[in-house]
């Protein structure tokens, strides 16, 4: 019985210390590349809008501006240059 109690206390202490150090932000821990996010957003918009969205043009824009103008598929102003009328 004492062995089980000691083991349970040990698990609680370990869990407490593990949970105490989980407040790091993934962006800080791994770093983030605006160019990568920009191109991923272009791909997401292409999936959402299909033939109405010029994905290659969006990706070229990401490369040209080095990811400084990240498209947001829900913001018409940010994706307007990449939409076509078909």
Automatic annotation (TrEMBL):
Cellular component, GO annotation: extracellular region
Keyword set includes Nucleotidyltransferase: no
Cystines in this chain: 38-62, 42-58, 45-73
Source organism superkingdom: Eukaryota
Pfam families listed in its UniProt record: Eclosion
UniProt subcellular location: Secreted
Keyword RNA-binding: no
Signal sequence interval, chain numbering: 1-24
Annotated InterPro entries: Eclosion
GO biological process, one term: neuropeptide signaling pathway
Main location: secreted
Function text: Neuropeptide that triggers the performance of ecdysis behaviors at the end of a molt. It triggers adult behavior patterns: larval, pupal and adult ecdysis, and plasticization during the molt.
Assigned protein family: Belongs to the insect eclosion hormone family.
Protein name: Eclosion hormone
Lineage of origin: Eukaryota, Metazoa, Ecdysozoa, Arthropoda, Hexapoda
